[in-house]
Amino acid sequence: MSTKLSGPGSTRTPGRGPAGPGLPRTARTARHHAPITATGLVVKVVLLGLVAGIAIWAAFPLVEAEKWVGLGLLAATTAGLFYLYLTPRHIPAKYLVPGTLFLIAFQVFPVLYTASTAFTNFGDGHRGSKDEAIVAIQSSSVQQVPGSTEYALSVATAGDPATGALVFLVTDPATGTVSAGDADGLRRLDPADVTVGSGGKVTAADGYTVLNFGQASARSQEITDLVVPTAGGALRSSGLSRAYEGRAIRAYDAGCDCVTDSESGKRWTADERTGSFVAADGERLAQGWQVNVGLENFSRVLTDPNISGPFFGTLLWNFAFAIGSTGFTFLLGMAIALALHSPRMRGTNLYRVLLILPYAMPSFAMLLVWRDMFNTDFGLVNNLFGLGVDWFGEAWSARAAVLLVQLWLGYPYMFLVATGALQAIPKELTEATSVDGASPWQSFRAVTLPLLLVALSPLLIASFAYNFNNINAIWLTTEGGPFPADNPRNGATDLLITYTYRLAFGAQGAEFGTAAAVSIFIFAIVATVSAISFRNTRKQEEVYS
């Protein structure tokens, strides 16, 4: 029996033909959702099990820190992932969600964290809370006084003897009890878990590795610096086998919200705006706490002579470096591409292979090689040309050297992309200019170059943005030097990114908040330049389209 379909003379038998309203719902569903194979099921179970394991692993520290909002987001995200991948619906989301999560984790979150850090005084001496700063101030001022209790000391770690966190194992001379102490305080150990030798010295303890004399000697400075808070003061080492409970000469008074030195009588009052204890004469204690400072870091970058002078000087060189690296490599790469694009050239394939060799070599290794080649005494450049130039000792010679290195490393890329763009330009256009009597230079300027720029402008903008933050090019060759005698933080070849790195991790003390503010400036500069360039590129495309 046939069923009439729309359209004259068309019929179909129920159950046959393309899927449509006449088919049962299960048939249409089966057609759109292929059955899961055994391998696919195993992969899904493994991946969802991994998600569950990561969620459980991340939940414990959130519960311990009482971060209930974060715990709620973790639970909601995990439940959402299980719902998404255990149901046959929302097919597009199954492919979009993983990429979105990675984008948030590795792009959005770091940017937001950097932006939030820029509004704080986070850095050396300002890493924790005010209570932690008070404990650090009091602990660091501990001194041994007559009558201080002394303990037999064994130094141990809960991990690798060379790198693990240090722990003091001490035996109370009065009671014989053994305690383990670190920066968080003392905790008594079960007598069944420790072995005590002669003189009360601990020789073994469950969960700890007792250091021998050689291992302890290698970490003597860390042992000296370790302070263990106690109810009566703090515990410090006296050599490698004895410890004493000393008294803190600096104490915090909640009444005046200040720290007072019991020996000198000097007082440092808490300044909540800067997160520091400040004396009447302006002296600040090294230990402070993290606070929100608003726009102060941005203001310092623009107005503080110690930062703004190096910042603006570095910014000018940064633009010169990025423009020079991009422009010179483009001009050289384009010139070579034009030469090899000529029909009169022979052996072009061999030339192309030889010319892209620098592009095939690891850039970090080549930067180190070029650093040695510019060495004043035994470098290849001076020896080959009979020069005596101190390339990295003077500002302008160091800048010229890094630009030459960038030219050698970057022109093969520009050569490759220019070659591809030249081959995409129709020959009829250049032939038409020749017929009109234009010279090769006029033809290049009027036709070839504009079309090349339309095709390569996005790549040139990307190259500029990359070179603007090209930390390897500077750090592996000059390390930012040469440096003036009065400013070891900012060198002649420093880019903003290397200057920021030195601010954040410099030997003179890390300033993460200020470094984050500089990073925001860098982002704003690159984003503005890129936006303007892309707008001009679109105008060019409209003209030549």
UniProtKB/TrEMBL annotation:
Keyword tags: Cell membrane, Membrane, Sugar transport, Transmembrane, Transmembrane helix, Transport
Main location: membrane
A Gene Ontology molecular function term of the record: ABC-type maltose transporter activity
ABC transmembrane type-1 domain mapped to chain residues: 315-533
Subcellular localization, as worded in the UniProt entry: Cell membrane
Domain of life: Bacteria
Region (Disordered) location: 1-29
Membrane-topology annotation of the record: Multi-pass membrane protein
Pfam family, one: BPD_transp_1
Biological process, per Gene Ontology: maltodextrin transmembrane transport
Residues annotated as transmembrane: 41-62, 68-86, 95-113, 315-338, 350-370, 400-425, 446-466, 512-534
Amino acid composition bias (Low complexity), ranges on this chain: 1-27
GO CC field: maltose transport complex
Keyword Transmembrane helix: yes
Family that this chain belongs to: Belongs to the binding-protein-dependent transport system permease family. MalFG subfamily.
Role description: Part of the ABC transporter complex MalEFGK involved in maltose/maltodextrin import. Probably responsible for the translocation of the substrate across the membrane.
Protein name per the record: Maltose/maltodextrin transport system permease protein
